[in-house]
Description:
The structure holds two protein chains of two kinds.
Chain A: H1 8-12, E1 33-40, E2 48-55, H2 58-69, E3 77-82, H3 113-125
Antiparallel strand pairs in A: 1-2, 1-3
Chain B: H1 25-36, H2 49-74, H3 83-108, H4 114-122, H5 139-160, H6 166-194, H7 198-217, H8 227-234, H9 242-258, E1 270-272, E2 277-279, H10 285-295, H11 299-320
Antiparallel strand pairs in B: 1-2
Helix pairs in contact in B: 2-3, 3-6, 5-6, 5-7, 5-9
Amino acid sequence: MKLNSLDPRVNRMELPDENPYTDQVLHTMEHWETYEVFHQKKRGTQHVHCGIVHAPNADMALLFAKEQFARRGETSNLWVVKTEHVMAVDYGDADIFETTPEKVYRDASGYKVMDRINEFKKKQNA
Amino acid sequence: MYGGGYIHQDPNQKPKSHLAEGEDPIRLAEFEARIAAGDKIEPRDWMPAEYRRQLIRMIEQHAHSEVIGSLPEGTWITRAPGFRRKMALMAKVQDEIGHAQLLYSAAETLGKPREQMINDLINGKSKYSNVFNYPAKTWADVAVIGFLIDAAAIVNQVANSKGSYGPYCRALERICYEESFHLKQGHDIFVFLATGTEVQKEMVQQALNRWWKPIMHFFGPSDKSSVHTETLMRWKVKMASNDDMRQQFLNMYVPKIREVGITIPDAELKKNPLTNEWEFGDPDWAEFYEVIKGNGPCNSERIAVRKWAEDHGRWVREALLKPSHRYTVPLA
Lengths: 126, 332
């Protein structure tokens, strides 16, 4: 018995009408490696990480990235890089980002030079 | 589309304790504090094995629903009435497959390779949204799916996008953005038919009659009293109870169905003015469980078609595979 579907395309596949469940269909690595994708919306903006694609090589990774992340326009450029080539800090090592809690000396607002200038001017005029 | 609130749990498998053997209660406390503070969990963070297991199951099931869900609608691409409808439906179906890829990626970051997830779809171990085991008999079914199933899915997905697992939230944000187009185009077809000729109106009424029970099944049976749900909600894996999501859906969409003169095929459906909650007739939960078991009208076809696609694409994938390829778990 052939599977009888409402969809003529399915009927053309001539699928058997029996229990379709099978143990294993895909082998390990059949979907290749993963590439991390970086998307630039407009010229002049940063490329931003937006996800991954599975691909057998960089050219196809770019092609899949275009279909997956650029199908609605609003794209000026894409980068892909193999996941295995990205080095990352372990979240467990987040303490490396801890430093002195007070950082105003690195900030423009930490410098009140006008106060001193005004005081100096006042003295000059006195 | 398409993830429903209902996450299939094998009835033979008891929910595991929150802490597996050998897991550190201090780390669990830190983990729970992070979630309570509204912080996200990222792929390489420590997490309880049960959190990982539940998330993989949920995200994977959501991904499968996107793939399988595109089949009943895909049927109608070749027969869509007119060029504009055809373009829109093709775009929607492509989006759904794109959503599946985003979701598979999110699940992969938790350590389950994509090949294994697809194998588990084809061997029946993992489930997908039950609604897609029903056929799309007419063009009006496409209207009902695009409008109401997508609307129901958005209720669930918007809730889940505020969950605790970073990669899943990021995928859902993108998905919800695209879903808003799906919902609009579904609503457009629905209203067009409902306000059209008598034949068109009858066609959309018949389609709603066929789909109403599956739509009520979409969020799953009541789970308010489940202990299992409580932990998942504390971990922000599940963000709202099945009942709350169903109520929210009814609040938003019952008026939108009725305003164009379509009747909802449930005589008992009414809003109780005292509790402010929708009451509805039994949507036949026995049928729901029967379809999950594999005995719905299209279960076999859906899996057989998926398997056919994998079998027939194999030679291309293998031709492109190099022995030097090594799998690395995606970063985010």
